[in-house]
Fold this protein.
Amino acid sequence: MRALHHCETSIKRYLDDFITIVLLSDDGFNTVKIRVIRVITKKSDRIIREYLELYNSVGSDEKYKERLKDIRERFGGKFSEIKFKKKEVIT
């Protein structure tokens, strides 16, 4: 494994971004175009796709299932009350 030399703040930001994108995807946003998730998260298409690919690659692995479930339960509530009006979503 190679050392990446990321600071703690960066690692926390990466984790927060990953959790946000996963939760948006899990809460029915998975059928919404990437550009809408991009507007919501202010992340690039490339980053969103990378996080979703990572999530899909580990989502079925028994080692990670319980941890991903914990993440969804712990943070999932913050997205359950999001309401969007058509005019608020930029396409």
Notes: DSSP finds five helices and no strands in the chain. The CA atoms of residues 24 and 79 lie 7 Å apart.
